[in-house]
């Protein structure tokens, strides 16, 4: 045994010929299993990609359907809104026609709240649209057959008297209080502007244009900010102007200017309260009860007529200051702790007074300087 020579490998294979088929079969099985696993993974990946694509297509289709429904709903809402506005306009026209029949001697100016105006009886009155009755409520009640308080109908058989047109003498008489009534319009001093016939629409438009210009220039929250006199951003079309455009599509420009004018007026009022005698001060945003009411009425008339609102343009501090100064180069004032008091008396022309007040804003500072005229209240 120890002396035997080991057999060659060929000899051993010849002795165990069954090892070759078994090894080959195992190798073939391993290769086949790898092929099957690889094919299965590839097939699963393809199925996942197809499912993902199907989900994305379904989501896109669902989104398109939602967009279509939203657009249809918006179109229907817009159509209903237009129809509602047309119906409201027709109702307003019918209501105004009824009132004109009930009160034949009054003309009605469409300016928001109903304001009764007497039919002009002379050339002077026809050129001035601001003649008005003392109490439009009483005129409506008497014209409609109600008593003065509007509580009920007058007695049957009593003839209804139509109100007569108002003259300048009756306007002066109506300015005095009745017996037992508080005098809300005290007799003005010599420097107040009391001649109503001089307050034409041209004067009112000039004052409003200057107020709008100053109010727009004083905004602080716009981008970029302007003079930073009041914390508003109501005019620019990409901010507050856009909100008002969606809120009031036809009158949004007037609404923006009116809103920023009110912000400026409140700032002016706060500054005037710091004066020694605020009631005797006349500023760009405070002209006294009568003229302030006429300015508010004029804004309502412009909105109702859908007149184009004044454009403000681009803001440039240097050019704006030059523009304000050029309105009244002769404007002079005394600087006080609470404002700039104008030198000289209040002009009879309120438009010229407004130009002087705007010119007195220069040089432009970091805070509203409150230029004002002093009037006599004795």
The major β-sheet equals: 4 strands, mixed
Helical segment tally?
11
Oligomer description:
single chain
Structural class: mainly alpha
Distance linking N and C termini: 152 Å
Number of strands: 6
**Could you estimate the helical fraction of the residues in percent?**
40-55%
Residue windows where pLDDT falls under 50 for at least 5 positions: 105-192
Radius of gyration, in Å, reads: 42 Å
Q: Order of helices and strands, N to C?
A: HHEEHHHHHHEHHEEHE
Into which percentage range does the β-strand content fall? 5-15%
Lateral arrangement of strands in the main beta sheet: 3-6-5-4
Query: What is the 3D form?
Result: elongated
Q: What does the average pLDDT come to? A: 76
Topology:
Elements (H helix, E strand, L loop, with lengths): L8 H7 L3 H84 L3 E4 L5 E4 L4 H4 L9 H8 L24 H7 L26 H17 L22 H8 L4 H21 L8 E2 L6 H16 L12 H11 L5 E4 L2 E4 L7 H10 L11 E4 L4
Helix pairs in contact: 6-8, 6-9, 6-11, 7-8, 10-11
């Amino acid at each position: 045994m120890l002396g035997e020579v080991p057999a060659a490998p060929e000899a051993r294979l010849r002795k165990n010929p069954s090892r070759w088929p078994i090894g080959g079969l195992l190798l073939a099985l391993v290769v086949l299993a790898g092929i099957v696993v690889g094919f299965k993974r590839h097939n699963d990946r393809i199925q996942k990609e197809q499912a993902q694509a199907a989900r994305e297509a379904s989501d896109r289709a669902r989104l398109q359907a939602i967009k279509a429904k939203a657009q249809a709903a918006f179109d229907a809402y817009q159509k209903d809104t237009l129809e509602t506005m047309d119906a409201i306009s027709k109702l307003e026209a019918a209501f105004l026609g009824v009132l004109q029949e009930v009160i034949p001697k009054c003309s009605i100016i469409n300016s928001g709240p109903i304001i009764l105006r007497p039919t002009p009886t002379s050339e002077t009155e026809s050129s001035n649209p601001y003649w008005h009755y003392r109490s439009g409520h009483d005129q409506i009640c008497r014209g409609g057959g109600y008593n003065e308080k509007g509580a009920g109908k007058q007695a049957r058989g009593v003839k209804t008297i139509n109100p007569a047109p108002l003259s300048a003498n009756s306007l002066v008489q109506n300015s005095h209080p009745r017996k037992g009534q508080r005098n809300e319009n005290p007799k003005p001093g010599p420097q107040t502007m009391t001649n109503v016939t001089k307050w034409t629409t041209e004067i009112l438009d000039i004052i409003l244009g200057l107020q709008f210009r100053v109010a727009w220039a004083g905004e602080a929250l716009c981008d970029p900010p302007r003079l930073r006199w009041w914390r508003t951003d109501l005019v620019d079309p990409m901010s507050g102007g856009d909100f008002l455009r969606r809120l009031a599509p036809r009158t949004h420009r007037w609404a923006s200017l009116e809103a920023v004018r009110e912000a400026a007026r409140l700032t002016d009022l706060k500054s005037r309260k710091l004066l020694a005698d605020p009631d005797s001060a006349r500023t760009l945003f405070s002209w006294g009860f009568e003229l302030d009411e006429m300015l508010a009425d004029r804004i309502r008339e412009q909105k109702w007529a859908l007149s184009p609102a004044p454009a403000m343009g681009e803001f440039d501090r240097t050019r704006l200051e030059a523009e304000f100064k050029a309105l009244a180069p002769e404007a002079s004032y005394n600087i006080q702790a609470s404002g700039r008091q104008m030198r000289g008396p209040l002009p009879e022309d309120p438009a010229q007074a407004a130009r002087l007040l705007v010119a007195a804003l220069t040089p432009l500072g970091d805070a509203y300087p409150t230029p004002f005229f002093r009037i006599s209240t004795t």
